[in-house]
Design goal:
Blueprint lengths: L1 H10 L1 H5 L9 E2 L6 E2 L23 H19 L3 H17 L6 H14 L6 E3 L1 H12 L1 E4 L2 E5 L5 E6 L4 H5 L6 E5 L2 E2 L18 E7 L7 E6 L1 E4 L3 E7 L2 E6 L6 H12 L7 E5 L8 H11 L4 E7 L6 E4 L11 E5 L6 H11 L4 E4 L7 E7 L5 E10 L15 E2 L40 H13 L18
Length: about 475
């Protein structure tokens, strides 16, 4: 009966979500995909973004109405469908008593909980204790595995969103769009839960992945040697005198501080005339890190807002005075692998007219996940809100459309499989849901050169036009 009550309580998770303050536990999206983690252990290097002074003031009437609506939502969420619970108990007992092989209570209950989340959306999932610990490690930027961003599919297979820079996955040749169908010859099952856990393991151990790649005649067998992955989330260099480059590969606990250090190093010889901020194939991470970086280069204006069914899911972040670039031109380079927090940052800079967005349409993950810890060490990652850019546009299933579009060259034997949030089965519908808008993944220095050319034009520097990448052929 205790287990049955636990299941009934889990069905009322929206109530529990009210006990998990969203700003204190920012959503996390990468390795594993789109997700949430605890806030940074150290205070941000600059003041936290303030509430938007232009937001309408709450009146006693509106506050009372909101409280009444929340109370009704809580009451509705706490109601347990007794007929369905009785039906569940009937099936539970039938399986336990008559299934061809013995099944433990623990296995049955975990399967039931997985089932509650399986058909919600691609980003809601159940973490076993070990999976939850691995998930937290990602926020700290160190774990043992292969270094790949994945998205679980309905059939249990794993779709590669991106291979993280300089990791075993990237070195072994895993590509965005690859479908991993088996590991060490064992096919994945639909009910396996977390996406990245199967690929974790001790550093030095090998794993053989069976990979289906578009236009490949047969599945590929790719051997990857696990390592301790220390994800360096920020890299920087000078492209030309006065023009800097910062690459942000993921948003981790220390990413904002590392970004500020990179800017300080780039400006040691004097103020920058412009900066290229590279967010290509950045799967996201901690929302607070993305918000802090936006605040670093904005002097004013909104950054992002979140809206959910309950008031605790609603939040709004705005910039505080002070632009670390002192108004120098800024180009943000994005592609089809730029997701979640990357899109929040790009959208904030675009809507405020602070940066020009160059590249291809971004992934389109505009939802917020909240991690709800359970008493046994397991956790539930539940989608609780949507992101909105300062102009009020939803990112979900649409992404950020670049100001200067770029496309990757194609050939007749091209094996890339373009993916986006809108192409994922069961994704949340967006304001302008479009299943035919996946952006190219733009690898290589060619696109940095084109971004620099655009930056120099913004700075008023004469520049020979960089040769654009060949446009993608029109779909027939």
């Amino acid at each position: 009966m205790r287990r049955l009550l636990a299941l009934a309580l889990l069905a009322a998770l929206p109530v529990a979500a009210q006990q998990a303050p969203a700003p204190a536990a920012p959503p996390k999206d990468a390795a594993p995909p789109p997700k949430e983690a605890p806030p940074p252990k150290e205070a941000p290097a600059t003041p936290a973004p303030a509430a938007d002074p232009k937001a309408p003031a709450s009146t006693p009437a509106s506050t009372a109405a909101k409280a009444a609506a929340d109370a009704k939502a809580e009451d509705d969420a706490s109601k347990v469908p007794l007929d369905d619970i009785r039906r569940f108990v009937t099936v539970y007992n039938a399986v336990k008593q008559a299934y061809v092989e013995p099944v433990t209570d623990d296995k049955l209950m975990k399967a039931a909980i997985h089932g509650l989340l399986l058909d919600l959306d691609p980003h809601s999932t159940y973490f076993d204790k070990s999976d939850a610990e691995d998930f937290d490690q990602n926020a700290r930027g160190a774990y043992e595995g292969i270094g790949v961003e994945l998205q679980r599919q309905k059939d249990g297979t794993l779709k590669v969103v991106s291979a993280i820079d300089d990791t075993p996955a990237a070195k072994a040749g895993l590509k965005s769009g690859d479908i991993i169908v088996a590991m060490d010859g064992k096919p994945f099952r639909p009910d396996e839960g977390d996406t990245s856990a199967p690929l974790r393991g001790p550093a030095g151990s090998k794993v053989v992945l069976t990979v289906v790649r578009k236009n490949a005649k047969k599945p590929l067998e790719i051997t990857v040697v696990r390592e301790t992955i220390h994800v360096t989330s920020v890299r920087s260099r000078t492209l030309e005198p006065g023009f800097g480059y910062v690459r942000v590969a993921a948003f981790q606990a220390d990413t904002a501080a590392d970004f500020e250090k990179a800017l300080a190093k780039l400006t040691e010889g004097g103020a920058l005339r412009g900066l290229v901020l590279d967010l290509r194939s950045n799967p996201g991470g901690l929302l607070t890190s993305a918000v802090q970086i936006a605040d670093d280069v904005l002097d004013k204006g909104g950054i992002v807002s979140t809206r959910g069914r309950i008031s605790i899911s609603d939040a709004q972040f705005s910039a505080t005075p002070g632009d670390r670039l002192n108004g120098a031109p800024l180009v943000v380079l994005v592609d089809g692998g730029s997701a979640s927090a990357s899109e929040v940052l790009a959208g904030a800079l675009k809507d405020n007219g602070r940066a020009r967005i160059v590249g291809s349409r971004t992934f389109g993950k505009g939802s917020v996940q909240t991690v709800l810890p359970l008493d046994n060490g397991d956790s539930v990652k539940l989608t609780t809100a949507r992101y909105f850019t300062p102009s009020g546009k939803s990112i979900q299933a649409l992404g950020i459309v670049p100001d200067v579009p770029l496309a990757a060259p194609r050939s007749a034997d091209d094996t890339r499989l373009l993916i986006s949030e809108a192409s994922l089965p069961g994704h949340l519908r967006g304001d302008a849901d479009d299943n035919d808008t996946a952006g190219d993944v733009l690898d290589g220095e060619t696109y940095v050169t084109q971004a620099l050319a655009e930056l120099k034009r913004m700075a008023g520097v004469p520049v020979a036009d960089a040769k654009p990448a060949k446009p993608a052929p029109k779909k027939k």
